[in-house]
Specification:
- By secondary structure, this protein is an alpha/beta fold.
- Helix content is about 40%, strand content about 25%.
- It is built from eleven helices and 15 strands.
- The strands form four sheets. Strands 6-5-4-9-12-14-15 form a seven-stranded parallel β-sheet, sandwiched between helices. A three-stranded antiparallel β-sheet has the order 1-3-2.
Length: about 250
């Protein structure tokens, strides 16, 4: 029993998150109830965090650093990435602006035009409503995550279902060949997926420091993205991988 629980914990620690199906597959000779009891035990001693349908590495909540810490990192680069995305904004269009520090830089550079802006970020909404009087603004409902300054969960899906999105300007916490584009929070990941389903065009702003990072939840694969705005630190192999899957890559100086 101890060896099995150690193996379960090691698998979760290595991957950051795991589903019940994935963990049960590691021990096909054990019942789902047995694996569930093992996970409950590991959660009780603080080794993992239980979720609906699986488990997370115990420090998963800390993988996404605090918003204000991230805001200070590579601030000038984020503004340059945002500036590269601004030319894609057309008047009388509906835009979704994702939560995040780079998308906040994008919102700050956004021209005050006849636009309908939908966002999941209260800080972006506040900026738009006070600084861009010509823009119409919609804020998704839901629970506010203090760490990421994003709304998700109950209410947000209902708002999105009733709207059309011409262009979604998205952020990501990580990207890897195996994990795709990832986020650190389950609710935010679900909201991002819904946005991708609704948007006619998806532009993702992400600096190259996120390459190789795997957060717990995948919200997109390369075919889901139309344009990646990044910097010259993007590895050539990753750029080739993206371009082979029809992703346009636009780069600024790192």
């Amino acid at each position: 029993m101890a060896e099995r629980r150690d193996a379960l914990r090691a698998h979760i620690d290595e991957h950051g998150a795991a589903s019940m199906e994935e963990l049960c597959a590691l021990f096909p000779d054990r019942s789902t109830m047995t694996i569930r009891r093992d996970l409950n035990h590991l959660a009780a001693i603080g080794a993992i965090t239980r979720t609906h349908g699986g488990a997370l590495r115990r420090d998963t909540g800390q993988l996404e650093s605090h918003y204000h810490e991230r805001e200070q990192n590579n601030a000038a680069l984020k503004r340059r990435l945002a500036a590269l995305a601004i030319p894609f904004v057309e008047e009388r269009r509906s835009l979704f602006i994702d939560s995040g520090t780079t998308t906040m830089a994008f919102a700050q550079l956004l021209p005050d035009k006849d636009l309908t802006i939908l966002t999941s970020a209260p800080n972006i909404a506040l900026h738009i409503v006070t600084q861009k009087p010509t823009c119409s603004l919609l804020l998704t409902g839901g629970t506010v995550n203090r760490n990421t300054l994003s709304c998700s969960g109950y209410g947000s899906a209902e708002v999105l279902q009733s709207l059309n999105i011409d262009i979604a300007f998205m952020g990501a916490s990580g990207f890897s060949e195996t994990g795709g584009f990832t986020a650190g929070e389950h609710g935010e990941c679900a909201l991002k997926r819904l946005v991708l389903d609704k948007a006619e065009r998806v532009i993702l702003l992400m600096d190259s420091s996120k390459i190789g990072k795997n957060m717990p939840y995948t919200f997109a694969r390369p075919p889901d993205i139309d344009i990646l705005v990044t910097d010259t630190g993007l590895p050539a192999a990753i750029e080739a991988l993206l371009q082979a899957q029809s992703v346009q890559v636009i780069k600024t100086e790192k």
